[in-house]
Specification:
Blueprint (H helix, E strand, L loop, with lengths): L20 H8 L3 E5 L2 E4 L1 H21 L2 E2 L5 E3 H7 L1 H4 L5 E4 L5 E4 L4 H8 L11 E10 L14 E11 L2 H21 L4 E5 L8 E9 L5 E6 L5 E3 L19 E4 L6 H8 L7 E9 L4 E9 L6 H7 L4 E4 L2 H6 L17 E5 L8 E7 L2 E6 L9 E2 L17 E16 L1 H5 L3 E3 L5 E3 L1 E8 H11 L1 E2 L2 E2 L10 E5 L5 H16 L4 E4 L6 H11 L3 E5 L7 E6 L5 E5 L3 H6 L2
Parallel strand pairs: 3-7, 15-17, 17-20, 27-28, 27-29
Antiparallel strand pairs: 1-2, 4-6, 5-6, 7-8, 8-24, 9-10, 10-21, 11-12, 11-21, 13-19, 14-15, 14-16, 18-19, 21-24, 22-23, 25-26, 29-30, 30-31
Helix pairs in contact: 1-11, 2-6, 2-11
This protein binds adenosine-5'-triphosphate and magnesium ion.
């Protein structure tokens, strides 16, 4: 491919809203452009990278025995009503009407459609297991589309769905997918980590996420410094903190004026924050109603919102307004576990179960209770609610936990029969009994991966593509495009590389100066450049390694062979 013929509109300007390196460089180097908020066009270079990633994903999945299909992007709203998700998906799911007033959805994911496809077609245990996947457009009307391809509204996802006769077989496939994903992300040249995850709106139990480690990642990952444990903070566990709760306060109601925070309370009473119980008030949003919910955690712990949301089965949690708190009969700053208004739902962190001699609000302005024992509650009141902190102890090995940042590029779920049951998708087992399929579901953010590669691999000058993701392997730069010798040598190297099966681009532009072509090479980020310049008369060209910046003079006769071995 000749640079002079390719549509690569590079620019020096960085768009205002592009804060991440991947977003800036992909726009500046002419891989993508924005067509609307969270909507992107792929220009030739971007399309090449997208296809490369897509091919790696496809090859590894096909090798694992999964089969590629392609479902319609627009799905009838009935699918979503039948599974019960029409109301659960919220505003992220974009609904449309056709001219006959029929309801449709721009698919944000495709569990329902895939179950509909298999239903009444796979009817016997003899046809199982089956794993079907697609690499297809998804649309989610994200509240805050940002960071370029990282969180778009329209994006490319690989979504796979497997169907099984029992849980054991579904778990076997789940494990196979975990191994397959490892191969995919390793081939793409990524530094990644597999972590325990929350299952979110898709539902099901036992889910794992694949995170590309990068400082700019939106997710906080909890990792252990001595074992393999890793979890998204939304699902992270720690060893119970054992804390001395004895204090010198007499049991009962105590006057604690103007002590609405844990810090004020503990310094007023001269006790440790860990000897107090903190109440976090939220508004739990449900399909057709909202409720005020109170979550109790130890005074020195923080609430993890995803865990809290799951504990009350809400769609989401919002901050409650002052009025809503008062109307619910609560006194902000003085809320405690005893004598809560009955209309308020509440959960207590499991680590507080059977804890004695605690201090918490008295549900009365300016008063707290001392000597509170956390006991005699129904089991379903206790829930893991805390955000694991750095320095907490690993449940698996006793090591220290710390945080790192990750970009979620894959998510695999053990779904069970939730969708097959709701949609009446059954098969006959070996005893002739009708049963709903056991399912697994497996996603990869194909377009997000483009951004993830660059977040992990760039410098101040631009992109640094990995070998498998680079649109071309080599940029052959003709130092002076008007010099016939340089041009013919470059063209010869280009042809020889092509014959050797190495993808190269020939920067044959005549108007641009050498420095300009070099900055384009650095911005675009191909693994190598071969510079054909002054030393050509002595029989040498220069080989530049984009990642390390190393430059080496190489004899003209050796250059193709050397690149073949890279
Ligand atoms: P996130 O937590 O980042 O919003 P999710 O948990 O909603 O993602 P899944 O439903 O698990 O995402 O979708 C599968 C994969 O699709 C994700 O692992 C992610 O890589 C990708 N993905 C999800 N949302 C987006 C988006 N808005 N833009 C680009 N890729 C996305
Ligand atoms: Mg996810």
């Amino acid at each position: 491919m000749k640079f002079s013929k390719l549509f690569i509109p590079t620019t020096k300007e960085t768009p205002n809203d592009a804060t991440l390196p991947s977003h800036q460089f992909l726009l500046r180097a002419g891989f993508i452009n924005t067509s609307g908020s969270g909507l992107y066009n792929y220009l030739p270079l971007g399309k090449m990278v997208l296809d490369k990633i897509r091919n790696v994903v496809k090859e590894e999945l096909d090798n694992s025995g999964a089969q590629e299909v392609q479902l319609s992007f627009v799905t009838p709203i009935e699918f979503w009503e039948n599974s019960g998700r029409a109301t659960k998906m919220g505003l992220e799911m974009l609904r449309i009407k056709d001219r006959k007033n029929n309801g449709f959805v721009l698919s944000p994911t495709n569990e329902e459609a895939m179950v509909e496809l298999v239903k009444n077609r796979v009817t016997s245990y003899k046809d199982l297991p089956i794993n079907l996947y697609q690499i297809n457009t998804k649309f989610r009307d994200e509240a805050r589309p940002r960071f370029g391809l990282m969180r778009g509204r329209e994006f490319l996802m690989k979504d796979g769905y497997s169907f099984h006769e029992n849980t054991d077989d579904m778990k076997r496939e789940f494990h196979l997918m975990e191994e397959t994903y490892k191969k995919i992300f390793t081939r793409l040249g990524l530094d990644f980590r597999i972590v325990d995850a929350d299952s979110g709106a898709i539902g099901g139990t036992g889910s794992k996420e694949f995170h590309v480690l990068a400082n700019s990642g939106e997710d906080t990952i909890v990792v252990c410094d001595s074992c393999n444990y890793g979890a998204n903070i939304e699902a992270a566990k720690r060893k119970d903190k054992k804390i001395e709760t004895k204090n010198n306060l007499a049991s009962g109601k105590i006057s604690t004026p103007s002590t609405t925070t844990i810090d004020e309370l503990s310094s007023f009473l001269n006790i440790l924050p860990s000897q107090t119980i903190k109440a976090v008030i939220k508004k739990a949003v449900y399909e057709d109603t909202t409720k005020i919910a109170v979550f109790f955690v130890r005074g020195d712990d923080e609430l993890e919102e995803t865990k809290a949301c799951n504990s009350v089965n809400a769609l989401e949690l919002e901050d409650a307004s002052e009025d809503e708190i008062i109307n619910a009969g609560l006194v902000a700053g003085y809320v405690g576990i005893k004598d809560l208004p009955s209309s308020v739902i509440f959960k207590i962190d499991s680590e507080l179960k059977d804890e004695n001699d605690m201090v918490c609000g008295a549900n009365e302005e300016n008063y707290h209770l001392a000597g509170v024992d956390v006991c005699c509650m129904e089991d379903n009141v206790y829930f893991d609610l805390v955000a694991v902190c750095e320095g907490d102890i690993c449940e698996c090995c006793g090591g220290k936990l710390s945080y790192t940042k990750g970009i979620e590029v894959g998510h695999i779920f053990q779904l069970g029969d939730r969708y097959s049951k709701a949609l009446g998708a059954n098969f006959l087992d070996s005893n002739g009994k009708s049963k709903p399929f056991e399912m697994g579901t497996y996603g990869i953010g194909v377009s997000r991966l483009i951004a993830a590669v660059i977040e992990q691999s760039h410098d101040e000058k631009g992109c640094v593509w990995t070998k498998e993701t680079a649109p071309f392997f080599v940029d052959i730069i003709i130092s002076n495009g008007k010099n016939e010798d340089e041009l013919s040598t470059g063209t010869k190297i280009y042809e020889d590389l092509k014959t050797a099966g190495i993808e190269a681009i020939l920067d044959d532009r005549t108007k641009e100066r050498f420095g300009f072509k070099m900055s384009d090479f650095e911005l675009i980020g191909l693994p190598y450049a071969v510079v054909i310049g002054k030393k050509l008369s002595e029989g040498f060209v220069e080989l530049v390694n984009r990642k390390t910046g190393e430059k080496e003079d190489i004899a003209l006769s050796k250059i193709v062979e050397i690149l073949k071995n890279k």
